Amino acid sequence: MKKVLLLLFVLINLSVAAQIQIKGIIVDGLTNETLIGANIIVQETNSGTATNFDGLYTIIHKGTLPITLMASYLGYKTVELEINSANPSPIKLFSNS
After folding, report:
1. d(CA 26, CA 51)
2. pTM for this prediction
3. Which of 96, 91, 97 is nearest to 28 (CA)?
4. pLDDT tens digit string along 67-86?
């Protein structure tokens, strides 16, 4: 019974340790105003989120870095970025026009 519990404990710790929390912000490339509701997708997994009222996003990624994020917002050009850290620099989106 102790061996089973030990094995279960080790497996749970390994699955938790493999998660990376990536936090960032999306802003307008010209005005640096935050973009509310911009979409962020992890390209390898197609999982994603949207920015909050402050332009902030948080993604829990089960894997290792680097990853490719795709950021989009209505009326703006979609960008793909390679992310190498859990706290990347602000993502700047520019207008389609």
Report:
1. 7
2. 0.78
3. 91
4. 999 999 999 999 999 999 99
